[in-house]
């Protein structure tokens, strides 16, 4: 049966949003993400003269039948805000006889982060280049944190520098589970905490896929006053969300979450860390940088490190 192939190019930060939006219409496992390849000059001439920094191409396939046009219109309408804001191209459609699986199988997306992390699809073939590489295999999921978003990249870069095997770590807002898996593969033990049931399942799946079950405990819950904030991304939380009390039991806390949640939890972060504890914050842009840093320094944190990518920023702090 013929298929209709839909494709679009995106920036780093748009990948998670595209996958989440598309999951409302199609099976998320059918989404293929590959590295963006520069188009020919003739094709570029047909588009805007100034090209955004596309980094990934997303492809999906739907049956080519009488319902195709309606499905395509739904997908275009869902993704149009990303196109209007310059995060993605318009959708291109082509009728094909079979899925073009060659790019995904023979040239898998290998996403290198920092000096050691390599993010791969679950079954992508890969031969390690150096002995100390840390392989993170991640499924496409509805939970934030594919490893392609700048906030996740920045968080991983900081964790690579500060995680040591003896640490007890809290991953607050674990999302896809990529940070918890990375921490475990660096030798530490982790409590992965999220108040979204989909994220909790995604984290648990990532933990099993990467075989770090002995080091990671996954819990649906929030830290301190975080349980009073509802779903941080505007979704629905279940009635059995646990509240983790703020006690000094962690050596490091990583939080890749919204700026307003960082600010609300500043005191809980302080009370949950042993001396001299380390906190890493990500998930916000420079527009919120001053407010987040001010809130944390006021309760006793000192900025010791920083990573930036375009408008995204991440900090490491130590209790002063």
From TrEMBL:
Which protein are we looking at?
50S ribosomal protein L11 methyltransferase
Q: Which domain of life is it from?
A: Bacteria
Q: Which InterPro entries match?
A: Ribosomal_L11_MeTrfase_PrmA, SAM-dependent_MTases_sf
A Gene Ontology BP annotation from the UniProt entry? methylation
Tell me one Pfam family matched here.
PrmA
Cellular component GO terms held in the UniProt record: ribosome
SUPFAM superfamilies listed in its UniProt record = S-adenosyl-L-methionine-dependent methyltransferases
Which GO terms label this protein's molecular function in UniProt?
protein methyltransferase activity
Q: Which UniProt keywords apply?
A: Methyltransferase, Ribonucleoprotein, Ribosomal protein, Transferase
KW Zinc (keyword) present: no
């Amino acid at each position: 049966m013929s298929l209709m192939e839909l494709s679009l190019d995106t920036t780093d930060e748009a990948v998670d949003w595209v996958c989440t939006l598309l999951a409302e219409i199609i099976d998320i496992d059918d989404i293929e993400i590959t590295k963006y390849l520069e188009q020919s000059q003739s094709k570029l001439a047909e588009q805007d003269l100034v090209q955004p920094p596309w980094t990934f191409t997303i492809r999906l396939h739907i049956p080519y039948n009488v319902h195709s046009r309606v499905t395509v219109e739904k997908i275009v309408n869902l993704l149009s805000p990303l196109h209007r804001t310059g995060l993605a191209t318009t959708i291109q459609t082509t009728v094909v006889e079979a899925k073009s699986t060659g790019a995904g199988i023979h040239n898998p997306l290998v996403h290198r982060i920092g000096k050691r992390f390599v993010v791969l699809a679950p079954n992508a073939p890969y031969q390690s280049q150096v002995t100390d590489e840390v392989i993170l295999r991640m499924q496409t999921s509805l939970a934030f944190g594919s490893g392609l978003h700048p906030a996740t990249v920045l968080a991983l870069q900081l964790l690579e520098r500060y995680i040591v095997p003896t640490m007890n770590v809290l991953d607050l807002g674990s999302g896809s589970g990529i940070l918890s898996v990375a921490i475990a593969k660096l030798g530490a033990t982790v409590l992965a905490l999220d108040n979204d049931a989909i994220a909790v399942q995604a984290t648990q799946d990532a933990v099993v896929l990467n075989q770090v079950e002995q080091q990671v405990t996954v819990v649906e819950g929030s830290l301190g006053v975080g349980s009073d904030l509802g779903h941080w991304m505007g979704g629905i939380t279940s009635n059995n969300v646990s509240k983790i009390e703020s006690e000094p039991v962690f050596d490091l806390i990583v939080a890749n979450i919204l700026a307003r949640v960082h600010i609300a939890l500043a005191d809980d972060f302080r009370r949950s860390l042993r001396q001299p504890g380390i906190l890493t914050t990500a998930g916000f842009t420079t527009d919120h940088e001053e407010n987040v840093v001010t809130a944390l320094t006021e309760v006793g944190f000192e900025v010791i490190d920083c990573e930036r990518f375009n408008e995204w920023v991440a900090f490491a702090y130590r209790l002063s």
